[in-house]
Backbone:
């Protein structure tokens, strides 16, 4: 008897950064299991709508259907200064009626809904249409542990975390210094905190939680998440490590001046410096970084953004081109561009990070420790110099250094203080030149190997995905009976 395949509905948060891992997940279900995939696009305005659509059609190769939900206007619902930690959850609540209308018209109706920790209000629609309900955490297992544990901490810790002297002990995670916690937790009076806690509680309603990490990378944390005496008594839903879900580099774009230059450098000899699209350094920090790189006497590629410029990807993507034109780097120290001519490459254009990281000449990455960047670094065997710029990246930095052993950490936190040139020089040399660097490089290569193994047929993430696929098929059969 010919049975049709399950239909998986994905509801990611608005924004490219959130969309990409969902697209990757959808492609896995489509290619490994032949499932039908629909991505429900939430957008805040029309321009982000068009941008997301273009990316999806470029990347999905027709593997995923796209349903564009009408943009939501939350201006009357949130304070104009509200943070993203408030805007996202509110947007995801407001989208529910539109999502419901859309589901009601789709034939066959999806068998499964997979959404973000902030998307669980759509679970009511899933229930109504008899769909399974899953959450996909596009970050790591510590983040999931923290999310589940926050409602417990809320009852246990009297007074705000900031007033805590002792590091916080979250089951399955190394103890986290309070100053390394991420923003919403530091201010209990903030709506952000309430939203985050609510998300932690609502996670319990799910049929399962997928995590963009893999068993062998975070064995202790996954064990704690399943242990009935630890986090397993709070979150009873099964946890599935299915990662690393990342986008792959396509070789076609590896051309131009930068890659011509990289091709001439020895293997593992170049430090790649980039802080992602969301942040800019202060003028003072930029100066110290420039001198630090120069003093280290190592080769480097630095993707710069003008200091103090307002954050926002658009300004960045439209940045001026022309690597030859040194005037555009007037904010860098005087004479810097000519002094580094033969060892450094400074670029302000958008370049594909994966393409750079996968180049054999790259030997280290000065990074803000976003999860995306971390996964890309592991998959290319590149050690990290952790340079967290915001509170919320500090926990990641702790994890990379203390748990994964793939990074060195700065003595001062860049989010609190300017990191001096000597410190930068020392850390660069530690990774690129000193003995300690060899150990870290070996460790990253071990992680790279374990990631590849997890994704291969028979690997842990592959099996987790197959297990999920079985549950989806079982539900489908029940519905057909
Ligand atoms: C993650 O990586 C992809 C591929 O390199 C990139 O397009 C995307 O913007 C990144 N997302 C974030 C949040 O950095
Ligand atoms: C540099 O790396 C590339 C790619 O990994 C490899 O093919 C090549 O043999 C390496 N070159 C040297 C000199 O080790
Ligand atoms: C880690 O990095 C990601 C960015 O990829 C960020 O969204 C997250 O909040 C950071 N912190 C933690 C605790 O996960």
Residues:
């Amino acid at each position: 008897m010919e049975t049709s395949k399950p239909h998986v509905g994905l509801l990611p948060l608005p924004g490219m950064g959130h969309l990409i891992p969902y697209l990757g997940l959808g492609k896995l279900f489509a290619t490994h299991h032949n499932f039908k995939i629909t991505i429900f696009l939430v957008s805040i305005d029309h321009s982000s709508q068009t941008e997301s659509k273009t990316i999806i059609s470029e990347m999905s190769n027709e593997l995923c259907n796209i349903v564009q939900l009408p943009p939501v206007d939350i201006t009357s619902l949130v304070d104009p200064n509200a943070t993203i930690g408030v805007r996202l959850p509110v947007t995801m609540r407001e989208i529910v009626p539109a999502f419901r209308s859309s589901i009601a018209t789709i034939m066959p109706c999806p068998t499964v809904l997979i959404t973000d920790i902030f998307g669980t209000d759509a679970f009511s629609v899933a229930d109504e249409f008899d769909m399974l309900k899953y959450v996909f955490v596009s970050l790591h297992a510590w983040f999931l542990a923290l999310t589940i544990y926050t409602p417990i901490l809320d009852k246990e810790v009297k007074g705000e975390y900031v007033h805590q002297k002792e590091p916080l002990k979250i089951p399955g995670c190394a103890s986290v210094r309070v100053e390394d916690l991420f923003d919403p937790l530091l201010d209990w009076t903030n709506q952000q905190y309430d939203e985050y806690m609510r998300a932690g509680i609502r996670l319990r309603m799910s049929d399962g939680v997928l995590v963009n990490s893999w068993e062998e990378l975070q064995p202790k944390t996954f064990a704690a998440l399943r242990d009935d005496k630890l986090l397993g008594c709070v979150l009873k839903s099964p946890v599935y490590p299915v990662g690393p879900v990342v986008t792959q580099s396509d070789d076609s774009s590896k051309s131009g001046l930068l890659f011509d230059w990289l091709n001439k450098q020895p293997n593992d000899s170049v430090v790649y410096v980039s802080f992602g699209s969301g942040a800019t350094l202060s003028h003072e920090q930029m100066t110290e970084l420039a001198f630090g790189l120069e003093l280290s006497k190592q080769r480097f590629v630095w993707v710069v953004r003008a200091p103090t410029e307002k954050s926002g990807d658009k300004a960045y993507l439209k940045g001026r081109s022309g690597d030859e034109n040194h005037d555009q780097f007037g904010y860098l120290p005087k004479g810097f561009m000519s002094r580094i001519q033969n060892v450094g490459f400074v670029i302000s254009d958008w370049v594909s990070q994966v393409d750079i990281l996968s180049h054999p000449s790259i030997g280290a990455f000065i990074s803000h420790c976003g999860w995306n960047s971390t996964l890309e670094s592991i998959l290319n065997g590149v050690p990290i110099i952790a340079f967290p710029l915001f509170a919320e990246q500090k926990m990641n930095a702790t994890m990379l250094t203390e748990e994964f052993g793939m990074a060195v950490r700065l003595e001062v936190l860049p989010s609190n203080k300017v990191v001096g040139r000597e410190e930068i020089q020392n850390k660069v040399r530690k990774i690129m030149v000193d003995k300690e660097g060899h150990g870290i490089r070996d460790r990253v290569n071990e992680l790279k190997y374990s990631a590849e193994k997890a994704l291969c047929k028979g690997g842990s993430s592959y099996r987790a995905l197959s297990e999920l696929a079985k549950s989806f098929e079982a539900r489908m059969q029940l519905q057909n009976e």
In short: DSSP finds 18 helices and 13 strands in the chain. Residues 435-455 form the longest helix (21 residues).
